[in-house]
Amino acid sequence: MYNQSMEREIDLKQISDGKLYSANDMIKAGCGDCAGCSLCCHEMGNSIILDPCDIFNLEKGLHTTFEKLMESRIELNVVDGIIQPNLKMQGSRECCAFLNEEGRCAVHEFRPGFCRMFPLGRIYEDGDFRYFLQIHECPYPNKTKVKLKKWLGIPELGKYEAYVKKWHYFLKDVQEIIREKGTDRDESGEVIKKLNMYLLNQFYVKPYETVPDKGKELDFYGQFYERLGQAETIVKMYR
Ligand code: SF4
Ligand code: SF4
User: Fold this and answer.
1) If exposure means fewest CB atoms within 10 Å of the residue's CB, which of 12, 85, 109, 195 is most exposed?
2) How many whole angstroms from 42 Cα to the centroid of ligand 2?
3) Of 11, 8, 10, which is closest to residue 172 (Cα–Cα)?
């Protein structure tokens, strides 16, 4: 699987139908509810990266914590200089840790964003993103047309997409800082590590509120933007 979150430098013609899509477009991705197939839940290496919303959804859906997920379901890797969690593949068949014995996703209702998109990817440009359809990834024949937003099945999609953009471009800014620091002095390794530890804790380890307070609606985005505001202040100090 290609890293599904990419900048425009790749040649889309090689991996897609050459078109870019938005939420209201129709896409030829329908695969009969994946009957009998779980190919894209195997051998994905560390490519299914989890963002803060994915962790919130897993914590909420499984009544668990980031630390508990780290025990067997997810792992950490460095992606473009930033430590981020990804789904863990395990066993001789390299299965996702959430794939059950029947070959179905045990967290289907609240599966991560990359799983929801597959075989779509996102391509970012000028502060925005569009979707593209990877044509070599899902072998299901005779795919049917489906509305993209129905394919994703994400409530309040506008809010979600705004969040996805914010998170992506925030990470881009951090990557830029890390790149600059990396070419600097000897102590830069320590500085980068400190920044990484801060971000890991701020967006992942620190538990999200996943049970609504009496009379209050549970809101991931409010929690995320509060953390982001704090992080932007801290990150500025590393420039
Ligand atoms: S490869 Fe295609 S048909 Fe198979 S599980 Fe993934 S999306 Fe479904
Ligand atoms: S979370 Fe579910 S859909 Fe995603 S790779 Fe794992 S088993 Fe497959």
Assistant:
1) 109
2) 9
3) 8
Q: Is the CB of 31 under 6 A from ligand 1?
A: yes
CA-to-CA dists, residue 201 to 129, 163, 166, angstroms: 27, 19, 18
Q: For ligand 2, pick from 55, 86, 98, 108 the residue to mutate: most ligand atoms within 8 Å of CB.
A: 98
For ligand 2, the distance from its centroid to the CA atom of residue 148, given in whole angstroms, is 19
Q: Give the position, in ligand 2's atom list, of the atom nearest the Cα of 118.
A: 3
pTM, two decimal places: 0.93
Report the distance separating Cα 203 and Cα 195, nearest Å.
12
Residues 64-100: pLDDT tens digits? 999 999 999 999 999 999 999 999 999 999 999 999 9
